[in-house]
User: What shape does this take?
Amino acid sequence: DPFGAAHSSTSISAGLGMAVGRDLKGGSNDVIAVIGDGAMSAGMAYEAMNNAGHLKSRLIVILNDNDMSIAPPVGAMSAYLAKLVSGRTYRTFRSFAKRVLSRFPRFFRDKARLTEEFTRSFFTGGTMFEEMGFYYVGPIDGHNLDHLLPVLKNVRDMRNGPILVHVVTQKGKGYAPAEQSADKYHGVGKFDVVTGQQAKSGANTPSYTKVFAQSLIREAEKNDRIVAITAAMPAGTGLDLFGQRFPERCFDVGIAEQHAVTFAAGLATEGYKPFAAIYSTFLQRAYDQVVHDVAIQRLPVRFAIDRAGFVGADGQTHAGSFDVTFLACLPGFVVMAAADEAELVHMVATAAAIDDRPSSFRYPRSDGVGVDMPAEAVPLEIGRGRVLRQGTKVALLSFGGRLQECLNAADQLAALGLPTTVADARFAKPLDT
Assistant: This one.
């Protein structure tokens, strides 16, 4: 690909920049941006479409709709119509009709335009895209090449303005295990290609994500003001479990982290206790909202920051490297990191108890370390760490999930005659002084 993709919803913006750059250089190449229906829930996609419609640069956007979330199932008639409205004959007639209508009073021009839009949208559902300045083609069956290829050839030959081709597909098409469990094949590790069976972790301890979800459920059972928000990652953040228990108090806002944060802030103004469960790397998208809508107003939004630190198979774009730094510099924030799964239980309770300022707690993409779990979650004293070992020669201060390594290092140092203090900071802000 000519442009690196990391977080979703960027392709139209990048493609438009390429298209404008091509026009400035006098080029004639085609620029094609592919975007999924899930990614279309992010505001950035509409910002890009709005700008593309205004600039009228030649850009082809292919909307891969693999969840039937935008239009109903399509068949031969819609495929025929898509081919028809993208063909040269229809476009030539449409252009001629516009020139003729330009000589009529505005009343007749407006009625004619509405008639055409109604007719096309009745079959295709493309009025919204047309209003944003795109020529809409679709929906078309993306698995039927006899339908798809003629449409793509037609739009390739179009020379004026941005075009959106709405292609409907099935996620995992052609591979039965993926068709039956598409969510489990979004990103995969090792699996048996014949059976589809995915390799399971050999750990006997629950994941941090599951510990968070179970802890939040227990807190919500005690307090009906606790609500949970996810940005299109209910399974990834564990909030699918919370949603099963409290469906009316769990909100999946789609790929819209900016909205998720301000939505949570609005809930906080009404006396609720919102927990926004967002991957560390995805929270970067909503930093302005964290600053202005949460921190400056000192609203008690609680950020459950999953995928903290390196994330292995999720790749470098998903590494949670910066959240401690960009949150600890904000006014009033309480910033925590769990050393183990037991600490995470207490930090969920701590965040639930904080009602006068925003807070966050981070945890990694991994299974717990196997410590004994507390019978009861106890809110921690704000800004107070804990000392696990006392020594006189060396001091190791841990923050987050590397505490076990510090304890192991202390054992080795002690064997060398260097008694070592090991402390778990718990809080990056406020610091234990």
